[in-house]
Each structure stands twice: as structure tokens, then as C-alpha cells.
Write a structure and sequence with these properties.
By secondary structure, this protein is an all-alpha fold. Helix content is about 65%, strand content about 0%.
Amino acid sequence: MSGRSDAAAPRAQTGPLLAAGAALLAIALLAADQGGARPALATLIGGVAGLALYHAGFGFTAAWRRIVRERRGAGLRAQMLLIFLACCLSFPLMDGWLAPWGLTMSGWILPLGAASAFGAFLFGAGMQLGGGCASGTLFTAGGGSVRMGVTLAAFVAGSVWATAHWDVWAALPRMGGGSLLRMTGGPAPALAAMAALTGGLWALSAWVERRAHGALEVPRRTGSWLHGPWSLAAGALALVLVCWATFAVLGRPWGVTSAFALWGAKVAAAGGVEVQAWTYWSGWRAGALQRSVFADATSVMNLGIVAGAMAAAALAGKWRPSARLSARDLATAVIGGLAMGYGARLAYGCNIGAYLGGLVSGSLHGIWWLVWGFAGSALGVYARGLLAMDPPLAPRPAV
């Protein structure tokens, strides 16, 4: 049930809502024409993700900043809920349990190395300066944030910039990735291992919060399913459904940032840069440069997230873009976006593709990304403090 009466519900903004719906439909139709049914369905899944991300305010960046700066862990615990529940379906899918019904999935088992460690660290620092992670940048930009639009543009530029140096980073030492499903002997023990990891981090964040404040913060309740806001738990459950739908439609985990590199490469190629000569864009990636961006499932899913978030902001009556940016806002958006874009390519993805996607694949590189990404995020939180980007903290009561 909604915790808000109809009389108290905000008035939806009809114009932006219709524009968001029209954009989502147009992207889906173009995706169907250029790539077929799967990209079209991915567009709609992205729309649901954008709605959920906006209404729940579900961000990885703010959650990590709060546990470091305020010793509040509700956002981190919501991430653990999302990861574990997503694994409950992805692990059996990767083991072929549902293959007789046509549902199969290939996980991402990727290497661990110096380049991916540095990339995750750089991404973590960049997302604090930029003010959002990969999914966070998309949904806040769609929600009307001009600053996050700047961050997104820099994110795209940083992504394609990293592909120009791919040979250098690929030559650094690395070791092959590991799969929890293979190491433990199947989905059931792998799921038990993931329960231990996510449950342990859940308990650790609760211990840190209780030690600092004496009790856990009272969670925000869902106000209205249509107009928002949603609780973090509701957002996590909605994103679990997004993960499961992505598995079913695309046969792989949810990803975001490979599309940013593609967008940047297409822009660079249109400007006369011979990106097709770069090693990164050889082999299986070469075809993506030739095809329409609407044939790329990750690209249209990202565009769907932007449209879905715009619709959510309009339903909440909050879609009011403002171009008033200070010099600090502009500089940190550009620096943070470039760092995230560059780092994501080196780390095989972002908080969605490498962290969430890696863990739901049962890949050790998801844990590797978490360690280095969180370390970089902590540095970014410190940098935000030096730049006075956050309001002063209220004194903590004696515990």
C-alpha cells in the first residue's frame, strides 16, 4: 500500500512525461528495426531501471560515501540485497538448470591484474568527484541534472580515450579469472559463498553504524509506487527484476559502459579519427563501429534508463533542469567523468558491469573490483572534503 494519500500526491508534469514516453517508444522502435526484438526489449528494461533508480534514489556512489563519511550503511546493505537475490537466478542459469525452457546465460569471468585494479580505483575516485556512478550518471541526467549531463559527456570521452591506450594497459601483468561455480562445485555451494560475502558485508556495515550512532537509521518508506519516493529495499527488488529480465532477454549480465566507449568512438570516427586502427576496436568489436548504435543492446538500454528516469522525475513533479553551475561543479564533473570513463575500460566495466555483473557471474573479478573501487571511492570522499563539496556533518551523539 502507498504511504501517501492521493490528495498529497505530487502533480505529474504532463509535457516531460509525454516526451519521456515518446522517446522510450521511439528508441524501442529504432532498436527493433536495427537490431531486432532483443535490443527493443532491452530498451524497455532500461526504462524500468531508470524509473526504479530515480524513485528509490538507488546510487552506489552516495551509499559508499555515506558509509565512509557518516558511518551510515543502509545503501550498502541495499546493494548486498540486490546482489544476493540476483545471484539466486543467475547461478542456476549459468549452470543450465533452466536450459530446457530456453533460458541460458553466459557470465563474465574476467582477469585480475594491475590494469583492472588501477581502473577500478580510478573509477571509484572519479564517481565521488563526478557525483554518480555509471547507472547514477544516467538516471540523474535523465532526471534533469545538467551537471550530470556534463559528467556523462566526460564519461564518454574518458571511455574512448582509454581505448586508444589499450595496448599499453593490456601488456601489464594479470592472471586468469576464477569462477565461484567451478571453485565450489556448483550453484548451491557458490550461492552459499555469495551469501557469506554479502551477509558479512551487511553485518559489518550494521556493526559500523551501530558503533557510531547506537542504532540503525530508520529506513525511508515507500511513499507512492507511481510518484515516489521508494524505499531502498523496494529499489533493490525492482533492480533484481531488471537483472533477471536482462539475463532472460540478452543471456548475459547487465552492463553499461561498453556503450559509452562505442558512442565516443563513433563521434571520434565522424571527426576523422581512425579509431578502427586501434587494437581495442579490432576483432569482434570492429562490427559495432559499422552498425547503428540502435542495434547495440547496451546502448539502447542506457538510453532507456535516461528516458525512464525522466518519466519518473516528471511523475514526481521534479523535472526542472537548471544550467546554473559553479566553476567547481563544472571542473569536478569533467574530471570525475573522465576518470570514470578511463577507469571503467581498464577494469572491464563499472559498478554495474564489473561489480554487480561480475558478482552475479560468480567471478572473482567482481570482488577484485569491489576492493579497489571502494578504496578509490574513499580517496574520492576525502577529496570532496578538501573541496568542500559536502555540508558539514552534525556532531554525533555520545554512544
